[in-house]
Design a protein that fits this description.
2 domains; single chain; Rossmann fold; 19 strands; alpha/beta; 10 helices; nine-stranded mixed sheet; 25% strand; four-stranded antiparallel sheet
């Protein structure tokens, strides 16, 4: 079914059967999975009923697919699963059963609505959930965000006299809980002796001092602390509260689809491209830059567009593998035309201007 794994592929087919067929070719090859499955809202969602007879049947439906999805992941690969309020606790429990609690990466809260609804009794929800799990927490790749400019200006206000590199001070070099074997004397440049349970072996401490990494205070007589150079920082950790201002709202997803295909109401609640790009940003491998991204609830094709735009913006070579069925002609009338429009360029239906095709994106295959 898939001949070239280095291409971008869209498969028109029922996802469970398709996953079974292609598993031999993608087993342990996928770096990132994002899925936006039906939420089992119990309501009619456009052209289809988003409703299962029982919650148990819905969970069984997901389990069959997630069991196979786990097998496609590389060691340390990550799956992101979007879900709404009604099923979030059960879906999280299912993910814990399949991937195990120790491999829980994050529970992300996405503020997906800009305004509060006035037509509901009680407290109105403005969020959805995105659960992230891996098959091996020891091997995951998470890219930190860059440090804020304001923080750099405030914290990294010292400059190395020899190299000109910025650094900050005050990182403690000892801990009281360290074993007694780490206790030894260190002597400041002015002869002051300090004896603590250091975080480093004596030889390592000497190397740091010889290389100018140890700070002894302005007069070289204080308890030593470690210099942290800006060039060696890993950035700041990823927050699990994602605001629509940063990663898009549901309404943005709707507007994006309309601008490309000129349709409205044919596909309800597509995810915004920015949301998927945020997931790619924090998880792609910066060394290889060629991760395979799988979405087997591809819907309107947001993940495909996100991958293509991300590559164009970051000079990466990520590839997508999208799977969706053709219920109500969704694949042929929405998913495929959307991807082809991004590849070939299109006229923005709202702005009335031509949008250029995205550069060199590799070959695209449509498979029925």
């Amino acid at each position: 079914m898939i001949n070239k794994m280095k291409d971008n592929n869209l498969i028109n087919g029922e996802n469970l059967e398709t996953l079974k067929k292609i598993l031999p070719k993608i087993e342990k090859k996928v770096s990132i999975i994002y899925i936006d499955p039906p939420y089992n809202t119990g309501k009619k969602m456009g052209k289809y009923n988003d409703s299962w007879a029982t919650k148990e049947l819905y969970i069984d439906f997901l389990k069959e697919r997630l069991d196979i999805a786990k097998k496609t992941l590389k060691p340390g690969g990550i799956i992101f699963v979007s879900i709404g309020e009604r099923m979030q606790s059960r879906v999280k429990n299912l993910l814990e059963d399949i991937f195990k609690e120790k491999n829980h990466v994050a529970s992300i809260i996405w503020k997906n609505k800009y305004t509060v609804s006035n037509d509901k009794i009680g407290i109105t929800g403005q969020n959805e959930y995105i659960f992230a799990y891996t098959n091996d927490i020891r091997k995951i790749n998470i890219n930190n965000d860059p440090l804020r400019k304001e923080y750099i200006k405030t914290a990294y206000k010292h400059k190395d006299e020899k190299t000109g590199e910025l650094y900050r001070l005050g990182v403690q070099m000892w801990k009281s809980k360290n074993p007694e074997t780490s206790r030894y004397d260190v002597v400041s440049p002015t002869g002051v002796v300090w004896n603590e349970k250091w975080n480093f072996k004596e030889s390592s401490f000497k190397d740091l001092d010889d290389n100018g990494i140890v700070y002894w205070g302005e007069n070289n007589d204080k308890c030593p602390t470690k210099k942290v150079y800006l060039k060696n920082t890993k950035g700041r950790g990823i927050n699990n509260i994602w605001h629509g201002e940063d990663v898009g709202y549901t309404s943005d997803g709707t507007a994006q689809l309309k601008s490309i295909l000129g349709i409205s109401g044919e596909f309800l609640y597509p995810k915004p491209v920015q949301l998927i790009k945020r997931i790619l940003e924090i998880t792609y491998n910066k060394e290889t830059k060629d991760d395979l991204v799988l979405d087997f609830f591809a819907g309107s094709g947001t993940t495909g567009q996100a991958v293509l735009e991300f590559n164009n913006e970051n000079k990466t070579n990520l590839r997508f593998l999208l799977i969706t069925n053709n219920e109500d002609n969704i694949c042929e009338s929405i998913t495929l035309p959307r991807i082809e429009s991004i590849y070939n360029g299109y006229k923005d239906s709202k702005k009335g201007i031509m949008v250029d095709s995205i550069g060199d994106k590799g070959k695209f295959n449509y498979i029925e």
